[in-house]
Amino acid sequence: MATAPTATGASQSSHPYAPFTFEVPPVPMDEITDPLPAEQRETTKHQKQVEEELRENRVKARVEAAKSEGGFLNKCSAIGTDLVSKAEHASKATVAFQDEQTTKIAEEHAAKRFARACPSIASSDSVQADHKCRVINMAGPPYTVSGHLVITNGHVCFVGNTKMTIAVALADVVSVCQAVTLPTVSPHQPPCVLLLPRPDVIPTAIAVYARPERSLHVFAEVANCGDCLNVLDHCWRAVLGKVPVPGMTYAPPLGDVFTQALLGRPAGQATKRAVPGREAGAPQGPSVRKKSKSPPPAPGPAEDSGTPSVRRQSRSPQATHGSGGAKGQGPAPSVRRPSHGAGPKIAPA
Question: I need a surface site. Which of 141, 330, 334, 340 has the fewest CB within 10 A?
Answer without folding.
Answer: 340
